[in-house]
User: Fold this.
Amino acid sequence: MKWDKIAFSKLVEFPPKITLEKGELYDNIPMDVVDGGIKYVQEINQRLYTGGGAKFGNGDTIFARITPCLENGKIAKVKDLEKGVGFGSTEFFVFRAKESISDPDFIYYLSKTDIVRQPAIKSMVGASGRQRVDKGVVEQIKVPDIPIPTQRRIASILSAYDDLIENNLKRIKLLEEKAFARYKLIVKSEKLEELTIEELADVIMGQSPPSDTYTNEKEDNLPFHQGVTNFSNYFVEHKTYCKAPIKIADAGDILFSVRAPVGRINFTSEKICIGRGLCAFRSKKGFQNYFYQQLKEFFFTEDVIGNGAIFNAVTKAELMKVKLKTPSEKIQKEFEDEAQQIYNLILNLTQQNTFLREARDILLPKLMNGQIEV
Assistant:
């Protein structure tokens, strides 16, 4: 099936007309909570609206307009706003489906395709590192003119994958909460002593390989991470690889950001190469899950020990001196036995989500270009 082409602006209100009252609290979505692999934003907090920012409502699609956020796929569909409307980063475009012309879910999926993204990326202008998409170019992007019943069928097929992903994320969150609750009970009820990170764990400080060794091709290359760009709620996700790794983190290691934002943590489920923005921890006694919870609690406030005039950062020497409240090895071992089961369940659900995203992303362009009829 081949469809005629129409301008993207024929399908969407861009931007939609929304009025917010200054001085009122509204749900807020900053750029950093948008994960390109997940349809809906997982973390929404309220902020006082003082004017400015992108304004959106439930059902709208938010679309990063600045580099490298758009290249990283920061596009999401908005839902569950308490007042039905909210605001976020000034670096979002907001697309709203036109009633009886386009379907909100379809607009979200269309926005994720190269049909929209690639012309948007090519239109970027401005200073290096702060280039932004040309709104006029996006309005005139030629997209398939698909009848709305077919739009809904396409969206329904793709949404089935995202619904499963979201359900798995909810299960992961419950498992994380269970582990943290058990940890907090230990902190509250057991005798603790303060031990330094140097006493508790080995550390591998990252070192970035030459940039000409980076690649998007997996092949026999190791996944490469040098910051928190591809951190998720639990396990880091891989998008870039390295042909000549220097510093290696092994499967099960805890990744820790040593540059702004200092203190973000993730596990890695496989061997990876780490750059200068990260270090990797391994518990000396094998109590990796307990040590993860210690770090998570201590660094709940990001940049807690960071310094630096422009970017907060932490050195290895500073990190090793940090003291963490620690119970007996017997208590840690009991926690580890229980928490490792939770770790394995979360790993399984994370892998399921990886397969679901890959299957969805294979289907997406084929449905949009009519290669698969619905």
